[in-house]
């Protein structure tokens, strides 16, 4: 590395934060011979691997196995009543995470990048000062800089909430105990996944949600179907509530609601969204502007307000999914090389890993009608799919929204077993602009869940 200015190390690419988009770009540029430095505070591999997607879905696997074993006799198997073992759950989760962290660390080193563990603050345009975790400092300047610091769980402004030291989606993963009664504040994706998971592990679970229904961006019929499955799993759901105070007493944590009623649990989990990690970056010194919530302002090329300074992933206000961060990498890589790739018009899928799981891409029926489309609606129960019957898991409903004039698929909501694996088939058809008849008439192997697409696009209700 060049040190043309005393104490300043010059690199081709400087990445601040080691999340999916940034680390993938860093490894790619380094592998191509570029001089790359990546600064990470401590989560080798990023949020997804350490405290988000990977550990939570690892535990979802455990919860689903418990659910399957509870229904073992339906498939001709007798088994003793299964229980969640806290020590084994922790070992399972930590083993998966440790393996992926180690893999990422080795990949960083093998690609030839300069991987730096420390805390970075901007001191000028494309320049940071790093307080190293093992002592000392370094000053680095990049020809291009990518901000990839991610987000952390947000704590709502509720009287008493800080004093009770609530659990978050990250601290809950320490698995110090399986709560006797877990009160979840927030009925979004994170809150619902944890709610059902811990209900399956044996906790009593109460969800407090301020909206009139969970997943308000979904069509009411899809949201209501999921609500029913959560209730079947033992989750008590209170919607349309306001929380006025949270306090801790001898019997646990008490949440007081706006109507004067109280809910008391042994533990409370806050799951109301995430906040950007930008507060201590001194972005003003770099000429990088943020919005009123602290997210880095970017255009549709993911360029910030400062020259040759980019932002990717959650911190850039992108949809908070690892697969979106990966696409951010593709966009910035192309644009650093002089291209003109943009975020406009991206077709972003997402999955809610409850049991059954919800897989979604494109428009809902409500959104499509609001946009002026003349739509046809296909809807069918998962019980119609032969593979679901062989699995003895017929919970769920599939729904598709199709433009009546062009026959193009505008969106689907697949609620049922293995829905996330089927979703990509529909997304691919949508990306190619193919009519729904392509999936209706395709020869799809039997018996598979994807075979249900043959049936779905014959199940018109409108």
Automatic annotation (TrEMBL):
Q: Where is the Pyridine nucleotide-disulphide oxidoreductase dimerisation domain?
A: 348-453
* Key words, A-Z: FAD, Flavoprotein, Oxidoreductase
- Presence of keyword Oxidoreductase: yes
Per the record, the domain of life is Bacteria
Report the protein name in the record: Dihydrolipoyl dehydrogenase family protein
Taking the record's annotation, the residue ranges forming a coiled coil are: none
Question: Does the record carry Phosphoprotein as a key word?
Answer: no
Q: Recorded GO terms, molecular function? A: oxidoreductase activity
All copies of domain FAD/NAD(P)-binding, residue ranges: 12-326
What Enzyme Commission number does this protein have? Answer: 1.-.-.-
Q: Gene3D superfamilies attached here?
A: 3.30.390.30, FAD/NAD(P)-binding domain
Q: What is the lineage of its organism?
A: Bacteria, Bacillati, Actinomycetota, Actinomycetes, Kitasatosporales
InterPro entries hit by this protein: FAD/NAD-bd_sf, FAD/NAD-binding_dom, FAD/NAD-linked_Rdtase_dimer_sf, Pyr_nuc-diS_OxRdtase, Pyr_nucl-diS_OxRdtase_dimer
Provide the cofactor list for this protein. Answer: FAD
The record's family statement is: Belongs to the class-I pyridine nucleotide-disulfide oxidoreductase family.
């Amino acid at each position: 590395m060049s040190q043309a200015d005393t104490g300043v190390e010059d690199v081709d690419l400087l990445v601040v934060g080691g999340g999916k988009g940034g680390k993938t770009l860093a490894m790619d540029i380094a592998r191509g011979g570029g001089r790359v430095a990546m600064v990470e505070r401590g989560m080798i591999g990023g949020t997804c691997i350490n405290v988000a997607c990977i550990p939570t879905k690892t535990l979802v696997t455990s919860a689903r196995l418990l659910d399957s074993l509870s229904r073992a006799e339906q498939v001709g198997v007798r088994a003793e009543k299964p229980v969640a073992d806290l020590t084994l759950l922790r070992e399972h989760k930590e083993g998966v995470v440790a393996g992926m962290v180690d893999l990422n660390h080795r990949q960083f080193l093998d690609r030839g990048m300069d991987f730096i563990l420390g805390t970075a603050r901007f001191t000028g345009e494309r320049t940071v000062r790093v307080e190293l975790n093992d002592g000392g400092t370094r000053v680095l300047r990049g020809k291009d800089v990518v901000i990839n610091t991610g987000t952390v769980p947000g704590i709502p402004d509720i009287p008493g909430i800080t004093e009770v030291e609530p659990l978050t989606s990250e601290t809950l993963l320490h698995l110090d105990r399986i709560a006797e009664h877990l009160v979840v504040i927030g009925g979004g994706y994170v809150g619902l996944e944890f709610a059902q998971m811990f209900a399956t592990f044996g906790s009593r679970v109460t969800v407090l949600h301020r909206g009139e229904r969970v997943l308000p961006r979904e069509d009411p019929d899809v949201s209501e179907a999921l609500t029913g499955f959560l209730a079947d799993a033992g989750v008590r759901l209170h919607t349309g509530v306001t929380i006025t105070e949270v306090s801790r007493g001898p019997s646990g944590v008490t949440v007081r609601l706006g109507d004067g009623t109280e809910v008391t649990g042994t533990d409370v989990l806050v799951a109301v969204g995430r906040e950007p990690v930008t507060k201590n970056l001194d972005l003003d010194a770099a000429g990088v502007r943020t919005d009123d919530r602290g997210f880095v302002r970017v255009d549709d090329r993911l360029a910030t307000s400062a020259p040759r300074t980019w932002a990717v992933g959650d911190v850039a206000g992108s949809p908070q999914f690892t697969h979106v961060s990966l696409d951010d990498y593709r966009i910035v890589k192309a644009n650093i090389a002089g291209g003109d790739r943009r975020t406009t018009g991206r077709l972003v899928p997402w999955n809610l890993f409850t049991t059954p799981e919800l897989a979604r891409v494109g428009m809902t029926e409500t959104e499509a009608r609001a946009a002026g489309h003349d739509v046809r609606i296909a809807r069918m129960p998962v019980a119609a799919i032969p593979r679901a019957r062989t699995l003895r898991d017929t919970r769920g409903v599939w729904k598709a929204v199709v433009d009546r004039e062009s026959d193009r698929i505008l969106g689907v909501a697949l609620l049922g077993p293995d829905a996330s694996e089927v979703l990509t088939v529909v997304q691919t058809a949508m990306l190619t602009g193919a009519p729904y008849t392509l999936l209706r008439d395709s020869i799809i192997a039997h018996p598979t869940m994807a075979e249900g697409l043959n049936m779905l696009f014959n199940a018109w209700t409108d």
